[in-house]
Amino acid sequence: MTELTVHGVRVPISPEEVSAEIWRALQTGSYEANEARRIARAIRPGDRVLELGAGLGVITSIIASVDDVRVWSFEADPQTTQLAQRVVDLNCSGNVLLSNGILAAGPPQKVSFFRRSDFWMSSGFADQGPYQQVIEITSQDVDAFIAKHRINVLVMDVEGAELELLQNASLPGIERVFLELHDHLYGLAGVQAITVAMAHKELIYDPRGSSGPCVLYSVDDGERQFDAEVAHAT
User: Fold this and answer.
1) Mind spelling out the 3-state secondary structure of 129-151?
2) If you average pLDDT over every residue of the chain, what do you get?
3) Residues in Cβ contact with 20 at an 8 Å cutoff, skipping those fewer than 6 apart
4) What is the number of other CB atoms lying within 10 angstroms of the CB of residue 100?
5) How many domains does the chain have?
6) Range of the domain at 22
7) Considering only Cβ atoms within 10 Å of each terminal Cβ, which end of the chain, N or C, has fewer?
8) Between β-strands 96-100 and 133-138, what pairing exists: parallel, antiparallel or unpaired?
9) Does the reported pTM lie above 0.85?
């Protein structure tokens, strides 16, 4: 097993455990690079964060490094969950609860999850491309989970499932949502639908934490002083 350092996170992993493409991304630092650069803009000390789509736990670990943050993280792929748990155990200080499962809008229901060799392409969409395995998972109600754990920040990278969830969930008490858009699955009309759904929840597109498909929606917290670092990055 090799230990890589990816965006400051220690990742113990063997090349046999991931696809060749993901291994190259880990070695070159391109793995989740945009998310890693931007996630700090979405997280503040003391936040209670729900992460959907943990992947290898790299972004999870970055979130958990912020002072006094608690993280509840979910990954649908059971094999990827095991890899992520290894990363979380090595980098985090007991403030992350990682689970294998799916949270969705509405009561629990059976969800088909299509597992692919490049796990970042695994999703609930059969027509996204060839898949290795179909896993049946019973979802949990995302709104009930948010209310129970007093979550105030939602982070999502769920390969297209964000469209249905954000349109149909209420997201009680959520102040910020950071997600990766997947317009190749639902087109620009889907992106517009997400933005409209967020506006109905009084969550506004926030350019201070957004870049390309990685988008931050925030409650309006008033004007801020000019931030030269943000201006330069954008």
Assistant:
1) CCCCEEEEEECEEHHHHHHHHCC
2) 94
3) none
4) 18
5) 1
6) 2-233
7) N
8) unpaired
9) yes
